[in-house]
């Protein structure tokens, strides 16, 4: 039975920093004003349906540890309805404004594509009814185009055009469900859109297929009037050796080539940034620099492991630096902080799901508050402005604007003797540590 799955019935509340209750917020006060907006409106938390309610607790060397009551039985659609009851109860207890899902997280796959679509429609009916009575909204929906064996060689990039067509049908249904539920975004995660060996791979063919696939998705989005952006979630590796959505820079080049920059933004994840050899704030900064920032999957990886561990975000400093960048650009529009994170397979108590979210929500709130204070003090922004102050000079502006030729600049350089200046890295690292 799924009734009373969690130990408490009342929503988790803000209790202040003196609280030692793991099921109370110490920093996340949703109505607190931060730079002119409520904290909840800055953070826009979202619960990920898949890790919280679908993942059974397995790893590459062991199977299920959670034994959730909706994971076993004969009536797959009935179990999906039980899962929805627990999911919406958790949304209520955490008092989050959003959730997110893959199609197969919420509804079982049928023996045919039509059966799968019918199952998704049935669960969408339930979601629509629950959302009419609850405050939770859909941050984004997506289609799982990587788990089923038909997608072992990719979905949009598959060498078999019938698999490509099947993926089109599945994505159309997922976007229809997202649109019906007034989702604010639609995410494309190319879990197997890459290669395992170049010996059997035509890269140009596969990338052209992927470009066409996304172009058709954008066209359909406009056709049905879906207002939110399409989001691509970059990931460098795992499960395939090399994926075509490696990082923000790679995706930017891809979108530029296939003329998709106007409609597609980025859904960035810390764990994927690390696997690509970057920091989380690097990917966020680059997305803003290329006008591609959309949303964030909030989690963390294990620095000692080279795969996607999807742990709950607990690093205040890392989150602070991300919010320091975001607040300078106004923060989220349609995006949010989606908890693409899973509790550890030894965390088998139902309340561990709540505790993990509460702890990470507090970390995000602390990071937001630290970033707010850093910006108010000009702790990083003023040293940065000072470092590039020379580019505010009239002659420097003329060089950058294209009002000077290489020859004229070279002639001017004959009378210059520029001297290096300290980058002050250690000083700035110390500054950050004062706030976190």
TrEMBL record:
GO cellular component: cytoplasm
Cofactor annotation comment: Binds 2 magnesium ions per subunit.
Domain of life: Bacteria
InterPro entries: Xyl_isomerase-like_sf, Xylose_isom_bac, Xylose_isomerase
EC number(s) given by UniProt: 5.3.1.5
Residues that hold Mg(2+) 1 according to the record: 233, 269, 297, 340
Catalytic residue list: 102, 105
Protein family: Belongs to the xylose isomerase family.
Catalyses which reaction(s): alpha-D-xylose = alpha-D-xylulofuranose
Quaternary data: Homotetramer.
GO BP terms, alphabetized: D-xylose metabolic process
Protein name: Xylose isomerase
Keywords in alphabetical order: Carbohydrate metabolism, Cytoplasm, Isomerase, Magnesium, Metal-binding, Xylose metabolism
Compartment(s): Cytoplasm
Positions that bind Mg(2+) 2: 269, 272, 308, 310
Predominant place of localization: cytoplasm
Gene: xylA
Provenance organism: Aurantimonas aggregata
